[in-house]
Amino acid sequence: MALQPGATLGPYEILSLIGAGGMGEVYRARDSRLGREVAIKVLPHDRVADEARRQRFIQEAKAASALNHPHIITIHEIEFANGIDFLVMEYVRGKSLDAVIPRQGMRLAEALRIAIAVADAVECAHRHKIVHRDLKPANVMIGTDGAVKVLDFGLAKLLSDDESDRDAMTRTVDPAITRRGAIVGTLAYMSPEQASGEAADARSDVFSFGVMLYEMVTGERAFVGKTPTDTLAAVLRAQPKSPIELVPTLPHELERLILRCLRREPERRFQHMVDVKVDLQEIKEESDSGVAPPPLVPRGRWGAAVAIGVLAVVVTGAGAWLLKRSPAVVPPLMRAVPLTSMTGHAMWPAFSPDGQQVAFAWQPEGHDNFDIYIKLVGLEDVRRLTADPANDDSPSWSRDGRQIAFARSGTIHLVSPIGGGERKLSDFAVGAPIAWSPDGRYVAAGGDDWPGHAGVRRGIYLIPAAGGAPRLITPTGEDGHGPAFSLDGRRLAYSSCKETSYTDCALRLVDLDTEFIPTGPSRALTPQAPFMTWGIAWSHDGGSVIYGALDAGVTSLWRVRVDEDRPPERIEFGGGDAAWPAIAPSGDRLAFSRNLDAHAPYRFEPGRPSRPMLTSSLFEGNLDFSPDGQRIAYCAEAGGAVEVWTAKVDGATPQQLTHGPGRWQCSPRWSPKGERVVFDSEAADGRWHIWSISADGGTARQETRDEGSQNVPSWSRDGQWIYYSSDGNVFRIHVTDGRKQRLTSEGGVFVALESADGRNLLYNHDRGLLSVPLTGGSSRQIAPCVVGWAVASTSRGIYYAACSGEESGWGGSNPALHLVNAATGEDRVLGTLEKFSSFGLFGMAVSPDGRDIVYDRLLREGHDLMLIENFR
User: Fold this and answer.
1) % pLDDT > 70, the chain
2) Which residue has the higher pLDDT, 27 or 297?
3) Which is the catalytic residue, given 31, 46, 85, 134?
4) Which pLDDT score is estimated for 647?
5) Who has greater pLDDT, 789 or 616?
6) Which end of the chain is less packed: N or C, by CB atoms within 10 Å?
7) Closest CA to 614 of 861, 787, 857
8) In contact, 687 and 531? CB cutoff 8 Å
9) Please, which residues bridge with residue 392 across strands?
């Protein structure tokens, strides 16, 4: 009998059933002690007495808990309560891989990204002498942030034969559980030796991985049958269709890799998963760079002659290939490990010159500001350097190791890493992050022209460490943020945004002389993108720049080669929600900050606790009610991209509405009659445009084609116009004749909508929530400050979430919800939006009749620092 929501197991409250299988039921639960969501796996009640099954269950915990890897589900603890054995595991908001593989197969880039992560996880398990034995898409979770997690080691066979192994207690298993002749695993994905009941080793996982990868790229299973017996026979004897026969555009090297994994004889497969991973990485590099594979040898009367030419090329290349793959020159494997594991927000890492210490900014849970801390790599202890009530962030370690510069309230301060007094370097207003010049004479920072710092032209300035006036070093006419010097100091990389807004930004590079004076114009390293970069770091050889950037809704680490005409490539090893990279001046270490935030839509009811609206764990944000109040549109992950979905208001019968055209489709808004949905879409070049689609699906129609980006659309009440933002101002375009009008010119506006009566335009600005007549006239203030864009307009009035005065306009925790009567101007408080999250740009949605009020609620927040060892 399944546990019901509200039931408890020790300190854990059951929230919902996630799924069930032969090894147990899995529930989403809340840890009452830590206030975090977890996944709990319990044995079926009617099988608790089965000791063999119970031992296999405990084996899973011991095997998985011995592994520490970013792509393997984390086991928190093993518990026993109410007569039930259960595991407490990391809860991953997302879908299993089998639920996201499209019918026609996944996009190549996404399939390779996931496959490399899975191969890395399984290779880690094999190094610990653990064979998974049940690799299949259902045992791989794809998080809403793109994270890849392999789970369910319940069928793992442990290979260690050394009883003196000090880790044996965590890997011991009763041989009766995995006795020879017992078939374990899932038929369609098991290896022939498993299907025959023979002993299985790491090469069995290689086979299962090949079956899974086959399905990922083709959309079809390699081995199928009408009955389990037929499927078993197919695994033992059938030859799957050629992957290229199903997907003609598939790289030949990838097909060759898949078919080698699927060799029936174990000795003819890849012998080690690390070889699979390396080959996949090489295929991905070739795919990303656009390098074509060698042509196939043609058939026919000229085949022999052409074959000789091709063979010469292949033989020549084979020597280089063999040298490249020689074990003598294979570098150590990259390894991702946690650098911090503290509550709260740990961000902006900076290495000491020897790479053994890290300075960072930390805001512990329950505190209201950041301070600077340092720690030794590999040790848990941290030491606090600053204790000012203002925010201290963006530390930067001088090259001689004697000083750490950091930003406090828009100015630069210095402190010794061994503690002691601080000193303000300058009153010059700057924005974080900051960076030391390699010679230690200057601290570089971007001039800050935010309100309160008027008159400062944006650009990269050098502030002398010994005192003196700041000096602008970026070329005239450019702004600049987040500077990073190459190790030799002859190049500067920085983020530069268009005009006076923080939109349409690119990563730029300028060459410098020995006095840090530009020797020529700057050049763009990346395409223009809607958002500025989140941290920049140089590789040791100066050949590439690592940076954090928002792409397809996920903040990730990227690499761009500075002297090669190649597009930026995502660093898959970093995973999703990664930013603020730092590379150690000595050694091969890269640190970065990972966002742990999670949110979900909750219903607000005056006088009662808010409650969840959707049971789906894939909700991304920007929910909108249909005009009849019967349906909702929202954003959710699908097949590696974010798409627009629709569902009933209770979340039932969800349906994917869009399938592109870009890699991120969101901000859906219903037309006044409910027949179309308008949305914004991110194209491959990082720019956004406005599209619309029939509410019943079909082909999407592009509405805007301007330069730059157009975002967050909304409809006029008569359905004739679509409003959108571009370059910090509001525009509208006529849906029939394409006429375009600019409605604001003051900048700083990102989202706007029309009032319920169709007379006024509502938009959020530095001056608060404003309303301006569409027929012309002066604007008036509705509210002095609104959190995020938590604004909605219905016939009942204007709803908004008010700032408390202590928080910024983008991050209140428990803002008051107000309703303004449009006719009388009466402003009354309806209640509090508990743990409000401004993740969704709109933040809040109200049904047309005003009865349903939904907002984004923060379920979990925090940042940890991660470390990649042997980074290259």
Assistant:
1) 81
2) 27
3) 134
4) 87
5) 789
6) N
7) 857
8) no
9) 408
Strand partners, 604: 853
Check whether the bond before 612 is cis (ω within 30° of 0).
no
d(CA 733, CA 263): 58
Q: Report the phi/psi class of residue 129: left, alpha or beta, with left for phi > 0 and alpha for psi in -120 to 50.
A: left
Superfamily of chain region 339-595:
TolB, C-terminal domain (2.120.10.30)
Give DSSP secondary structure letters for 552-594.
TTEEEEEEEETTS----EE-GGG-SSEEEEEE-SSSSEEEEEE
pLDDT of residue 632: 93
For residue 159, the model assigns a pLDDT of 34
> What are 296-355's pLDDT values in tens digits?
333 333 333 333 333 333 333 434 433 344 444 455 667 777 888 888 899 999 999 999
Highest-scoring range by mean pLDDT, 35-44, 430-439, 615-624, 667-676:
667-676
Query: Dihedrals φ, ψ of 559, to 5°?
Result: -130, 135
- Residue at token pair 């699906």: 697
For the chain, domain boundaries? 1-91, 96-293, 339-595, 598-860
- Residue 454: per-residue pLDDT: 46
Please give the class, per CATH, of domain 96-293. Answer: mainly alpha
Percentages (nearest 5) of helix, strand, coil residues in the chain = 15, 40, 45
361's tokens: 């900014």
Q: Is 757 an annotated catalytic residue?
A: no
What CATH number has the domain spanning 1-91?
3.30.200.20
Whether 281 contacts 334, CB under 8 Å: no
CATH T-level assignment (fold) for domain 598-860 = Neuraminidase (2.120.10)
482's tokens: 């987040």
Q: Which residue reads 């966002």 in tokens?
A: 595
